[in-house]
Amino acid sequence: MLTVETVLRAQFFELDPMNIVWHGNYARFLEMGRCDLLDRLDYNYTQMQASGFVFPIVDMRLKYVAPIRFRQDFVVVTTLVEYENRLRCDYIIRDLASRAVLTRARTTQVAVRIDTGELCLESPPVLIEKVRALV
Questions:
Q1: Which of the following CATH numbers is that of domain 3-134: 3.10.129.10, 3.40.50.800, 3.40.630.10, 3.90.1150.10?
Q2: Contact 50/18 with Cβ under 8 angstroms?
């Protein structure tokens, strides 16, 4: 499947009182990786909306393995795992230098028609075509 890597650095404003990245910031890290993947497909949120669909997240899972610390460089490895009936991405967050695993995660999104609010049981043809053109 399609995989992209997004390199990030932990910032001071992302830390909690224990001087590690606050757990709530991980959803943002996943979003940044997912947006890079969707950019690669040329079907990011602007294109989704223009095609008549939104893709809300219906499930997100995270497994924290090791903390991310201030100014630590890390990479969000985002892999598109499913796309025909839903958009599912798996993530591994790794230390950039050592490649040690810091976090594992998964998100699931489903297509919803903007005009009717109807949940779609299949992904829109435009998404399927864009994925198949790259893989």
A1: 3.10.129.10
A2: no
